[in-house]
Design goal:
By secondary structure, this protein is an alpha/beta fold. The chain has two domains: 213 residues, 3-Layer(aba) Sandwich (Rossmann fold); 58 residues, no CATH class. 46% of the residues lie in helices and 17% in strands. Strand 5 and strand 6 form a beta hairpin. Helix 2 packs across helix 3. The chain is elongated, with a radius of gyration of 30 Å.
Length: 301
C-alpha cells in the first residue's frame, strides 16, 4: 500500500521479489543495489536464517521527478524461498505495492515454481491484497543453464494472467534492469489510476535512467547541462496549508456558494428590480446612520 508522508513530502512504494528458493531473488537485488546511485540508495540489509535470507534496501530516484510535489521512494524486498519460512514470506509481503516473481527456468524446478506462485497468491489474499490487481512481472531466470523450459512452456504453466515477462541471467545482470524498469512503470501507472493523481514521470527514458550504469548517467547529465536553459514559468507561491486548514477553507467556500445560491433564488422569486434594490439599500444605510446618531446622543447627549 502506497504510504504518503506529508512531513517529508514522499510517497513510499514497496516492491517484493518473490519466488522459490535459489531462483535468483537475492542476486536481482544485489545487482540492482550495485548499479543504483550510491547517493540515492540505502544500505543493503540482510536478515539471515539457517538456509536462506531476506534482503532489503530503499532508494530515492530523483530522475523520476515528483507526483503532486511528492518525491518517490522505492523499497525493495526479497522473501525467503524455503517453504518453512512462510510466516516470514507473508510478513514481508504485507503492504506490498507490486511483485516480481522470479522463476527458475530449469525443467526440474517447475513444481517448485508452481508451488511458490500459488503460495504468493495465498499470502497476498492473507494480507488483504488482490492477486489479480496488484502489478506483477514475471522473470524467467537462469536462461544460460541446460535443460531449461521454453518461454512458451513457462508462460503456459506460470503466466495464466498474461503479465509482462522477461528472460534473465541474474548472476550476469542480464534481464535484471529490464525486469525492474517494467515493474516500476506498471506500479506508477497503477498508483496514478488508484489514487487519481497525475504521474508526471511516464517518459520511458526517465524510468530507464534510474538503473543506468554510472558512465551512462554521467553522459546523460552532461547532455542535460549542455542544453540551453528553458524559460522559467512564473507561478504564484501559495502558503502551505495543512489538510485540516484546507478542509475548513473548502467548507467555508461551500457555505458561501450555498448562500449565493439562496440569494439568487430569492431575487428570482421576488423579481426585484434594480431600482427597488437600490431603494432598499438606501433605506438600510439611513437606518444605520440613524442608529449611529442615536448612539452618540445616548452617550454624550
Amino acid at each position: 500500500m502506497a504510504l504518503f508522508n506529508y512531513a517529508t513530502k514522499e510517497i513510499t512504494l514497496k516492491i517484493v521479489y518473490y519466488g522459490p528458493g535459489l531462483s535468483g531473488k537475492t542476486t536481482n537485488l544485489q545487482y540492482l543495489h550495485s548499479v543504483l546511485d550510491p547517493k540515492r540508495r540505502g544500505k543493503l540489509l540482510s536478515l539471515s536464517t539457517e538456509a536462506d535470507r531476506t534482503l532489503f534496501f530503499d532508494f530515492l530516484p530523483v530522475e523520476l521527478g515528483k507526483i503532486q510535489d511528492f518525491s518517490i521512494r522505492f523499497q525493495l524486498y526479497t522473501v525467503p524461498g524455503q517453504v518453512r519460512y512462510n510466516a516470514t514470506r507473508r510478513l514481508v509481503l504485507k503492504g506490498a505495492d507490486a511483485v516480481v516473481f522470479v522463476a527458475d527456468s530449469q525443467r526440474d524446478k517447475l513444481e517448485e515454481n508452481i508451488e511458490s506462485l500459488q503460495n504468493m497468491r495465498e499470502n497476498l489474499i492473507a494480507n488483504n491484497l488482490n492477486p489479480d490487481d496488484i502489478p506483477l512481472v514475471m522473470q524467467y531466470n537462469k536462461r544460460d543453464l541446460d535443460n531449461v523450459m521454453s518461454l512458451t512452456e513457462l508462460n503456459g504453466q506460470l503466466n495464466s494472467m498474461g503479465v509482462p515477462f522477461f528472460e534473465a541471467v541474474a548472476i550476469e545482470g542480464r534481464g535484471v534492469r529490464e525486469t525492474f524498469e517494467a515493474i516500476v512503470k506498471l506500479l506508477l501507472k497503477h498508483v496514478s489510476k488508484k489514487h487519481r493523481i497525475d504521474v508526471r514521470t511516464a517518459e520511458e527514458e526517465k524510468v530507464q535512467s534510474i538503473t543506468a550504469p554510472p558512465q551512462e548517467q554521467k553522459k546523460v547529465q552532461k547532455e542535460k547541462e549542455a542544453e540551453p536553459p528553458k524559460p522559467a514559468l512564473s507561478k504564484e507561491v501559495s502558503p502551505q496549508v495543512s489538510s485540516d486548514g484546507l478542509r475548513e477553507i473548502m467548507d467555508a467556500l461551500s457555505g458561501l456558494r450555498s448562500s449565493i445560491d439562496r440569494l439568487s433564488d430569492i431575487m428570482e422569486k421576488e423579481a426585484l428590480k434594480t431600482d427597488e434594490i437600490l431603494g432598499l439599500l438606501e433605506a438600510i444605510k439611513g437606518s444605520i446612520d440613524n442608529a449611529k446618531t442615536k448612539k452618540r446622543w445616548f452617550l454624550f447627549g
